[in-house]
Each structure stands twice: as structure tokens, then as C-alpha cells.
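Journal club side-thread
Mid-discussion, someone asked how the predicted structure for our own chain would compare to the paper's figures. Pasting it here so we can look after the session.
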Amino acid sequence: MIDIVAPVAPAVPLVFSSPHSGRDYPAEFLAQSRLDPLTLRRSEDSYVDELFAAAPEHGAPLLRALFPRVFVDPNREALELDPAMFSDPLPANANVNSPRVAAGLGSIARVVASGEEIYARKLSLAEAEARLDRYWRPYHAALEELLASSRRRFGHVLLIDCHSMPSIGGPMERDAGDRRLDFVLGDCHGRSCAPALTDRVEAIFQADGFRVERNAPYAGGYVTQHYGRPAEGVHTLQIEVNRALYMNEANYERRPGFAALQRAIGRLIEQLAQLERTAFAA
């Protein structure tokens, strides 16, 4: 369900999370879907957990969802659901009016990222609740504990929420048809992370020759919005990696540039860790 790749000892107030790189597609879900397995992967942030795999080497844990986001999405509110998908009424506290639900991309998605409908029939509310209990809630329980542990030990924490994005804006997105830059940093327009930290990440990537955008087209999802509380010592920054840098977007195979990008992200992690160690040594 989830996996925490832990360092030998937590040495820095950094936590990395990869909520969308899961590749374990349950057999019962594949049987329910009207789409073939390759199409279902269009919502997947393929290999992002591998791109950020250096985190434990530098003293920071990496939380990975092993389940796919098209099955249940931990970067949404638990009850961010589309009532049209279900045969039962939703609870009164369900968030049925969010832009993500309108796009078909709630915590239980109605469509894959390219817009195709996933299911041939309506789901029961019990099915949604079972997925949330087995997958969504354990992911967030683990993330909350990692953040709380870091705050207890260091007094603050920087959460890096790790994602990838299609190289061209999709049909349901604000930048439909536009070619994207190498990285997008989402800090909810300065609300989820201290600007100096976002500046630092941007400068590190730019020094490596990458092109970086902030908050467009992605300013941060549920994880960034929910956990980012700089005034309380919890900074959250979403990083979106352009998939064309490291994979073939048609067949999901790694490109020759994968290893070089992985090293570049490793340098980012190393420099962020060194920055924190230097701050504590001062």
C-alpha cells in the first residue's frame, strides 16, 4: 500500500513524498475498468519515486504510495468525490464542487488524465470508503507522523511533494497545447512555503541549466495546501518534473536522460540537506 524508505537516522528536517508514482494496479480494479492497462497509466507519475531516491542517503525519509492514483488519489481530500459516479448518495460532508471533481479527478477519479472515462458502471459508496480506509488514510497517517517527528526533532520541516507532468498541457488543463518548462515549483503562491526556500530550489535547478516556472500551471494540490503552514514551521513545496526529460510519454519507457536527471535531483537533495546542516551548526 505504502512504503517509507527511511534514512539510517533522520539527519535533516526534510521529508519527501511521492503520492502518484504507484504502479501496483489491483486486479479487481483492472476488471472494473473499461480502459486497457496502458491507458490507465496516463495518470501515473511514472518513476518519480526513483528520481527522488537519493533522499534517504542524505538523511531524509521518502514516502511512496505503491497504489496508483487512478485507483485512489492521496493528493485530494478524502471525500472529494463526484456524485455522478456513485449509485448511493454521498455523505453530507463530501466536497462535490471542487474544480478537481469537475474535471473528473477527485480522490476516486472518474477519468484518466487524458479525459477517458474509467468505469463502465457506477460504483457503490462502500467501494469508495473501502479504498479510502485501506489506501488514502494510511498514506496520510504516515505523512503526518513523518512531519510531526521532524518537527519534534528539529523544530521545523520542509516537505517536498514530488510529481511529474506531461510535457504538453492536456485538454482539461489551463495550458492546453502549450509546451512546458523543465520544472514547475508550486508553493500556493507563497502561502505553503517560505519564499526563500522556493528561491533556493529554483536557483539550484537553474544552476544546472534547467528552465523553471512557479505556480503555473500547478500551484500545489491537496498535500501542499493542507500541510503547508509556514507560521507553524511546516513548509511544503510541490515539484513537478517534465516527463519528456526522462521517459517516453507514449510507452512509459525510461529515456537515456533518466540517470542524468536522477543525479541532478540528487544534487538538489544534497544541497538542501547541506543547507539545513549548516543552519543547525551555526
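Post-session note: The longest helix spans residues 125-154.
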